[in-house]
Amino acid sequence: MCERVGERPVIGAAAVSGEAGTAPLGERAVEALLSLSGRTLPLLRQWVGSEPDHGVARALLALATGDHWDEAVLKEQLVIAHRDARAAGEREASLVYGVFLHTHRQYRLTADHLVGHFARWPADELAGLLLGAFSSCGDDAYRAHGDALVEEQAALAGPDSWPWTSWLAAARAEQGRVREAHGLAGRALALHPRSGVAAHALAHAEHELGAGPDGSGFLDEWLRADPHAVQSRHLNWHAALQSLACGDFPDARRRADAALARTDVGMRAATNWRLLLAGQSPAGRSDPDQVRELLAAPGGMAEVFHTFNLALALAVEAATDDLYVLARRAAADERADYREVLAPVVRALAEITAGRPRAAVELLSGLGEEVERIGGVRVEREIVQDTLARALVDAGDHTRAAGLLHHRTTTRRHHTYEDLLLAARAPAATVGV
Questions:
Q1: Distance CA 168, CA 8 (A)
Q2: Radius of gyration over every alpha carbon of the chain, rounded to an integer in angstroms
Q3: In a 3-state reduction of DSSP, which class is residue 51?
Q4: Do 183 and 201 contact (CB within 8 A), yes or no?
Q5: Cα dist from 74 to 57, 289, 302, whole Å
Q6: 8 Å CB contact between 228 and 196
Q7: For 136-171, what is each residue's pLDDT tens digit?
Q8: Mean pLDDT of 242-266
Q9: Which residues contact 399 (CB under 8 A, 6 or more apart)?
Q10: Which residues pair with 3 in a beta bridge?
C-alpha cells in the first residue's frame, strides 16, 4: 500500500510488488486497463483469445489499440463486439456502442451517450474509460459538463473507488484545485498504488506545487515497478519538468534524450523550448524536415494543440521562416481557434526567434484566457505564459514579467526555472539560436 509522508504518497516495497493474485483473467485485464498498466495489451489479447464471443473484451481491446488499426478492421471488430455484447445485456451493448463512437473520434456523440449511460448504470468504471471525450470535444460547455459528471459519479461510487477517485483527482488538477487534486491522488494511490491516472494527476498537482526532486523521485519509483506502463514516456516528461523546476538541467536533458522517442516531437519540443527560454542548452533536437513532413501530411493540422507542438519544435530550431509560413496558414484557416489563438502564438514564436521580443509581447499580451483554446492541459499551455514572460524581460519590462509569474514564484516550492525566466541576459543569448 501507499504510505503517507507529509502531504505526498510514497510507494513502499509492498506496493511495487505487482502481485497479480488469482483473479479471473477478465478481472485482471480490466484492472490493468484501468491502471494504464504495461500488462494491459497482453492481458486483453489473452482475454479475447480465451473468450472470443465476449463483446466487451473485444471492444476494450479495440479501445486500447484502435489507433493502430485500419479503419475497416476497427469497424469490423466493433460490429462483432456489439453483436456479442447485445447477447450479454443492455449495459454491455451500451458500453460497446460508446467505444465505437469514441474510437471513431465522435467525441460529442460519445459524451452525449455517456450521460445517458451513467443515468442507467451509475459509476460504471468501464464507461469511465471514455470520459476523455468531454475534453476532446473542444467545447467549454462539454468540458464543464464532463467535470460535473465526474464529480457526481465519484460521489456515487464512494471514496473507496480508486478509479473514480483517480478521475476526480485528474479533473481537480485541470481545474487548478491543486491541493484537492493532490489529496485525492494520494487517496487513490493508497487504495491502489498502480493507478496510472492517479500517478498522472499527482504529477500535475506537484508541477503546480513545484515539488522538484520529490516529484521526479516519486515518478521514478512508480515507473520502476512497471517501466512499460502506458504513460511511461509522458511521466518521464513530467519528471523532466520537475528537474527544470529545481534547476537540474542535465537531468531534464537526460530524460528528454533517454525517455522520449523520436516520435515524441511535442514533449521533446516542450522540454527544449523551456530550456532555451531559461537560457540553457537543449537536449537532442528534432529534425526540422521531420516537422515539416508532419505539418504537410494529411491531418498534419487537424488538431490545434498538435499544430502548436509542431510550432514549438520549429521554434527550438529557430526556423523563423517556417514559423511565419505556419502563422499565415493558421491566420487563413476557417477554424476560429486557429485564426484567433494559434496564429498569434505561432507568429510570436517567429518574432522571438528573429530577436524581436517586443513584437512577441504585443501578440501574446492580448490573448489572456483565450490561450485555453489552443488545447492541451494547464501544464502544457503554461509554456505560452513562459514565452510571454521571457519576451517581456528581453523587451526590458521586468516588472510586468515578474507580475505575470508572481503566483508561481510565491506558491511553488522549487522555482529556479521561473527565476531564470525573469533573469535579464545579453541579446546574443536569444532563444532558438
A1: 17
A2: 22
A3: coil
A4: no
A5: 14, 32, 21
A6: no
A7: 988 889 999 999 999 999 999 999 999 999 999 999
A8: 93
A9: none
A10: 10
Given a contact cutoff of 8 angstroms between Cβ atoms, the answer to whether 15 and 4 are in contact is no
Instruction: Report angle CA 317, 322, 327 to the nearest 5 degrees.
Output: 120
3-state DSSP percent of the chain in helix, strand and coil, to 5: 70, 0, 25
Cα gap 433→415, rounded to integer Å: 25
Cβ-count burial 295-307 (b if 16+ within 10 Å, e if not): beeeeebeebbbb
User: Which segment of 113-122, 255-264, 346-355, 419-428 scores lowest on mean pLDDT?
Assistant: 419-428
Q: Distances from the Cα of 342 to the Cαs of 304, 306, 316, 364, 407, in angstroms?
A: 7, 11, 17, 10, 25
3-state secondary structure of 196: helix
Measure the CA–CA gap between 194 and 113, rounded to whole angstroms.
29
Neighbours of 41 (CB within 10 A): 17
- Say what the pLDDT of residue 17 is: 35
For residues 139-167, one letter each, b for 16 or more C-beta atoms within 10 angstroms of the residue's C-beta and e for the rest, the string is eeebbebbbebbeebbeebeeebbbbbbb
Query: Are the CB atoms for 311 and 295 separated by under 8 Å?
Result: no
Which amino acid appears at position 365 of this protein?
Answer: S
Residue 210 gets the label, from left (phi > 0), alpha (psi -120 to 50) or beta, of left
d(CA 276, CA 274): 5
What is the model's pTM?
Answer: 0.91
Q: How many angstroms separate the CA atoms of 293 and 60, rounded? A: 32
| pLDDT, position 156 | 98
How far is it, in rounded angstroms, from Cα 21 to Cα 294? 44
14 CA to centre of own chain: 28
Which 3-state string (H, E, C) describes 370-384? Answer: HHHHHCCCHHHHHHH
Q: Which phi-psi region, left, alpha or beta, contains residue 169 (left: φ > 0; alpha: ψ -120 to 50)?
A: alpha
